[in-house]
Amino acid sequence: MTLEETTFALFATFNIVRILAYAPQMRKAATDPHGAEAISCVTWSVFAFSHLTTAVYAIVNQHDIGVAALFVANAACCLLILGAAVLCKRRSNRSTRGNPVPS
């Protein structure tokens, strides 16, 4: 295996592992009883757009659909986390509205 093949295999492997690693964050964002307050929507938005622009770069500049697909999958996971967090935050805000804030 050449150096180029080895580095691509490592790159692909760790990006696939990263996609799987999003699962616990998705679960936490969706089920946090405190409204996903530890999830930064700005951070996950930046991650999503970073992945999407990398996918576009891979297609336009490198003509590499495989790399683009990995980054689209990463972006989709980031958007799922973001969506789950936003829904959880809204759900939490609705449930606490009208309840006095504990002192």
Structure, described:
- The protein has 103 residues and is mainly alpha-helical.
- 79% of the residues lie in helices and 0% in strands.
- It contains 3 helices and no strands.
- The chain has helices at residues 3-31, 41-60, 65-96.
- α1 (3-31) runs parallel beside α3.
- The radius of gyration is 18 Å and the shape is elongated.
- It starts with a helix and ends in a 7-residue tail after the last helix.
- The model has no long low-confidence stretch (mean pLDDT 92).
Please report which band the strand proportion falls in: under 5%, 5-15%, 15-25%, 25-35%, 35-45% or over 45%: under 5%
Identify low-pLDDT runs: none
Query: Which whole number gives the mean pLDDT?
Result: 92
Question: Rg, please?
Answer: 18 Å
Helix count from the secondary structure assignment: 3
Number of E strands = 0
